[in-house]
Every structure is written in C-alpha cells, then in structure tokens.
C-alpha cells in the first residue's frame, strides 16, 4: 500500500560536501527504515549518478539525506524543483537561509528571538587587530564557526587573540564568511521538529571542550538525556520558541533547532538544521523514539512531507 502511494523513491545521500561520510550513514539508515515501512526506495549518490537522470530511472519522489553544501543549502532543492520531483523537507528559501548561520541570526534578531552576540569575519577583510577587537567585544571567549557548514566542521572555541587568528584562518578553508559567536557557558539542548510540532527535547553532555564532530559521531563518552531534565512547562515553552525559530527561516517539514541555556537560565538559539543526521547516534530518531515514533514510521512521516 505504502509503495503504491509513494511510488519509486530516491534517497539522495553521500554527495560531495565536507559531511559526505555522515550523509552516507544517514542515507543507509533511511533506506533500511523506508524498506521496513514497505517503500520502494533506492540509494542515489549524486557524486556518482547525476540527479538529472532520476526521471529516466523512474523515480517519483526524493528523500533528501544529503548534509551540507549541495544538499542542504537550497541548491539541490532548486534542481529538484526544476525537475518537478517532490522532495522531503524545506524548500529552496528555507534550506538556503537555515544553512547560513549569519543570516539566520539576523532574522532571529529582527523578530526578537534570543540568540548570542556575534560578529562576522570576512575573508581578506579582517586583520588580527580587528579580530582581537571582536574578541574583546564578545567577552573574551568565542565560538568560531564557518557560516555555511554543519556537523561542527571547522569550529573552534578560542579565548586569545592569537588563537582566534589561527581559528579564523582555518575556518576560511570552508567558507568566506566566519561567524564569531559569544561563548555561552551552560547546557546544550536540541529540539527536533516534525510536521510543525516539537518532539521531546534532548540534552547533550560531553567531556569535550564543546559538542564537536568527534562528540557527535565518534565518541562513546557523549551522553544524551531524554527526558532532558527541564520542568515540563519550561520545556513546552522552549518547544514553542524552537518552532518559531524554525518557521522564521522558512524551514518546513522536519528538522532540528539547537539551543543553549546558560547558568543564569537565559536561552540562546544556536542554529537550524533542515536535514539533520539520521544515523544510529542521531538526535531526531532519538527524540522521535521518546515520542513513541519508531524509526520506520519516522522515515515514512518525513517522506510524507515531500511536495
């Protein structure tokens, strides 16, 4: 029944971004989930098979499991629009805007949504002296983030001018714009969004300096708390803020909003992920499970967002 409803589904995974390895794992998990749900799903790696050939191979819909550039930034969404193939998740605008951490913050600020202070370093337009001034303005400790990367790639925590200069130079290998975000001391949470509502929140805890790539995908010491330990009413309020933050950047269908709560109880939105990881260690499947949604059902409900 499900197979007839959705037809032949292409799961796009892999690709050519810096997040290729994570995407391959996400795609493999999604394929297993869709097969368990009775879907005629097939993996397609754009690195090896042109997406423009999907019609020729009889595909009716697309499940996007590509992370990072070329899959999560609106470019793949635009191509699929031109091909008139329904696809999962956010559209062109939502994908492009959410991928850009700087523009996301600007939108949130315009709506009065809470986010940490920041400055932007632009390649070939920032001197060590300017970076040192930014560091002082932001309280002496910052997170360095390439504006358009995910999975904590290119990120660093720094608290000296020399370290900031080095970290920004390293981040420029990934992007021409680098976000310098005021460092927040507190606990990190994530809110999965599915079909317009927030799923149970998860608190991440790591012995690492921050929740980096190694903590996300390689470490056995990272702990995930769901229930997250917050008061039920406060968690519901944060869920509403997360949905507002998600909607503000025109994201849709499914995704994830990351945030922090500092030691004084103040909330800071971090970023929106429009194609979050779907690996065995990923957060959206974990939140869905806490809400009573099994993995095959989750993949099916995400597929239902395709339009």
UniProtKB/TrEMBL annotation:
Residues 105-304 form the ATP-grasp domain. GO terms for molecular function: ATP binding; D-alanine-D-alanine ligase activity; metal ion binding. Pfam families: Dala_Dala_lig_C (PF07478), Dala_Dala_lig_N (PF01820). It is found in: Cytoplasm. Mg(2+) 2 binds at residues 271, 273. Keywords: ATP-binding, Cell shape, Cell wall biogenesis/degradation, Cytoplasm, Ligase, Magnesium, Manganese, Metal-binding, Nucleotide-binding, Peptidoglycan synthesis. PROSITE patterns: ATP_GRASP (PS50975), DALA_DALA_LIGASE_1 (PS00843), DALA_DALA_LIGASE_2 (PS00844). GO terms for biological process: cell wall organization; peptidoglycan biosynthetic process; regulation of cell shape. Binds 2 magnesium or manganese ions per subunit. The active site is at 19, 151, 282. Its EC number is 6.3.2.4. One of its GO terms (cellular component) is cytosol. Mg(2+) 1 binds at residues 258, 271. Pathway: Cell wall biogenesis; peptidoglycan biosynthesis. It catalyses: 2 D-alanine + ATP = D-alanyl-D-alanine + ADP + phosphate + H(+). InterPro entries: ATP-grasp (IPR011761), ATP_grasp_subdomain_1 (IPR013815), D-Ala_lig_Van_CS (IPR000291), D_ala_D_ala (IPR005905), Dala_Dala_lig_C (IPR011095), Dala_Dala_lig_N (IPR011127), PreATP-grasp_dom_sf (IPR016185). Belongs to the D-alanine--D-alanine ligase family. This is D-alanine--D-alanine ligase. It comes from Corallincola holothuriorum.
């Amino acid at each position: 029944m499900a197979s007839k409803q959705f037809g032949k589904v292409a799961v796009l995974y892999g690709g050519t971004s810096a997040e290729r390895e994570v995407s391959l794992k996400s795609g493999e998990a999604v394929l297993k989930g869709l097969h368990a749900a009775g879907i005629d799903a097939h993996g397609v790696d754009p690195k090896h098979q042109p997406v423009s050939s999907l019609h020729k191979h009889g595909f009716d819909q697309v499940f996007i499991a590509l992370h990072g550039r070329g899959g999560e930034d609106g470019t793949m969404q635009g191509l699929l629009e031109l091909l008139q193939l329904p696809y999962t998740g956010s559209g062109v605008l939502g994908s492009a805007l959410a991928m850009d951490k700087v523009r996301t913050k600007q939108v949130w600020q315009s709506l009065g949504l809470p986010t940490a202070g920041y400055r932007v370093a632009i390649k070939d337009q920032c001197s060590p002296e300017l970076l040192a001034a930014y560091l002082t303005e932001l309280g002496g400790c910052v997170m360095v983030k390439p504006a358009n990367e995910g999975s904590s790639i290119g990120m660093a925590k720094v608290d000296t001018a020399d370290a900031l200069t080095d970290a920004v130079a390293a981040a420029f290998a990934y992007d021409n714009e680098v976000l310098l975000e005021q460092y927040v001391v507190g606990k990190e949470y994530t809110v999965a969004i599915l079909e317009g509502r927030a799923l149970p929140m998860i608190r991440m805890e790591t012995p690492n300096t921050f929740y980096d790539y190694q903590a996300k995908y390689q470490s056995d010491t990272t702990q995930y708390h769901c229930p997250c330990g917050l008061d039920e009413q406060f968690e519901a309020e944060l869920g509403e803020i997360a949905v507002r933050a998600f909607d503000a950047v025109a994201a849709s269908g499914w995704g994830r909003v990351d945030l922090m709560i500092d030691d004084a109880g103040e909330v800071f939105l971090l970023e929106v992920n429009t194609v979050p990881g779907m690996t065995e260690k990923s957060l959206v499947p974990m939140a869905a499970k806490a809400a009573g949604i099994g993995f095959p059902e989750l993949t099916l409900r995400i597929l239902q967002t395709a339009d």
